[in-house]
Design goal:
The protein contains seven helices and eleven strands. It has 251 residues and is of the alpha/beta class.
Length: 251
């Protein structure tokens, strides 16, 4: 499998930069780990983290090598991971203080069992391992409509995963629930292009209701990790509108 090139941000808003610098000053030894760094949201998270340079290290748990030659490239640590045996990598992530979990697939790509393994098992098993390591903040990219009681399989699994994460007792748990993700996908998904055209029309009437860019999801997740929390434990849930509004305040 070929490597994946990730480019740095071309523009960083002043508010975003100030948050980043304040976090770095208060947490000079903070280490981030990114699960699922080659997915659409994951690679946006990686490019934000490296472009800003607020974390002393950015550890990516990947099966595919990343290419990055922008600012803070020396902070990138790549771990070739076996998500089926994540416990074997416990030592690799022992320094991590914040995890950005962007793991995810589709039933169409992985089948029903494969989808559950990635979107539930990989997430929960990784979270348990990181919690045992002392990780303080787990930031999860979930999905709009996540509900363990849903009659539909996709939101049901997403909801089950979210609920099980809440039971692990992280000092901070952030769950972001984006709607339809707008991006230039590396792989072709004809049905997503079809629904994307429909959603684009709806958004002209009701902005930010049914979609959000992967860039905004990543910016919201990363900037949330910079914010000070007075009292823990705390669970924060961002619905789609919240994600868009959060990202808009970073310019």
């Amino acid at each position: 499998m070929s490597s994946l090139k990730i480019s740095p941000l071309t523009k960083i808003g002043s508010a975003y930069k100030e948050l980043s610098e304040a976090f770095k000053a208060s947490n000079p030894a903070a280490v981030a780990v990114v699960l699922g760094p080659t997915g659409e949201v994951g690679r946006e998270v990686v490019r934000n983290l490296l472009s800003l340079g607020a974390y002393s290290k950015v550890i990516v748990a990947t099966r595919r090598e990343l290419e990055y030659d922008g600012p803070n490239s020396d902070k990138l640590v790549q771990v070739k991971v076996d998500y089926d045996n994540i416990e074997k990598h416990k030592e690799d992530f022992k320094e991590a203080s914040t995890c950005f979990c962007c793991l995810g697939t589709t039933r169409g790509k992985a089948g029903k069992e494969g989808f559950y393994k990635v979107d539930h098992d990989y997430v929960i098993n990784s979270a348990k391992m990181l919690k045992e390591n002392g990780l303080r903040h787990f930031s999860m990219c979930s999905a709009q409509g996540a509900n363990p009681s849903s009659m539909f399989y996709y939101p049901k699994v997403k909801g089950q995963t979210d609920d099980e994460l809440k039971q692990l007792g992280f000092e901070r748990l952030t769950i972001s629930r984006p709607a339809f993700l707008v991006c230039e996908r590396e792989e072709s998904r004809p049905m997503e292009r079809f629904f994307g055209a429909i959603i684009s029309g709806v958004n002209k009437l009701v902005p930010n209701l049914m979609s959000v860019s992967t860039a905004d999801v990543a910016r919201a997740m990363v900037s949330d990790s910079f914010e000070k929390v007075v009292q823990t434990p705390v669970v924060t849930i961002y619905e789609n509108k919240d994600i868009v509004e959060h990202a808009s305040r970073l310019d």
